[in-house]
Amino acid sequence: TEQQLRQAERLDSLGQLAGGIAHDFNNILAVISGYATILNEELGPDHALHADALAIEQAAARGSGLTRQLLIFSGLEPSRPELLDLNVVATDMQRVLSRTLGDDVELTTMLSLNLPRITIDRSKLEQVIMNAAMNARAAMPSNGRLTVSTEVVRETGHVCLSIIDSGRGMPPEVAARAFEPFFTTKGRGKGTGLGLATAYGVITEAGGTISLDSRPGEGTTLRICLPPAEIAAPASTLVRRPPSTTGRIL
Ligand code: ADP
What is the pTM of this model? Predict the structure, then answer.
């Protein structure tokens, strides 16, 4: 409908605006972070202002994480698709995930062996998984379980990664809007509302699907499915890495 078209155009220009600002902002943050690092080194660890300089550096790092998110969301960050084994990505991320989740969340990884490979920008996929883990973390304030699992859907041949948390889940009115850009229940300064919108963009760009299954009090499953590389793109368009850097074959 015309209204949907207007909405789409509005989101599109919003994305471009956000991306443009993010790009300039990132340069500013790089300057702040650079000078804070110099300051830190000049002051030395014993100086009274050392902690302040460190706080500047850390705030700049958080800002640059946010601008990166905005850049990916806006589509201004170019994609470099590569052939990947989802099991390798899931395994390689275990350490950073368990650090993000903290000690009171139990992380389990369940891998289905011999997955067909997929084609996607690795760092964007990792950002999607990190966002999901941070959402899961926020939904499990005291303790909980996070399961990362992989599987092949027999009917379609798609390769899927599920991120399953035991958190508070979402009421239907939140679940219905969760993928909407800038929709957040986390309050000002805490959530950007760009996590799932970005995930949607990244996964659909790679020809895949992303879906949520959530019930209040019963936890949430975020499921990402991607077509096998043979279907996704002709081999000649792929950026191939030598086997040594592609990682382990599981
Ligand atoms: P943000 O995390 O910045 O709020 P997202 O797009 O990632 O933005 O998420 C939008 C909203 O969807 C969240 O504010 C939250 O209400 C809900 N949500 C997302 N993931 C989960 C989850 N695993 N459990 C419960 N609620 C979730």
Answer: 0.80
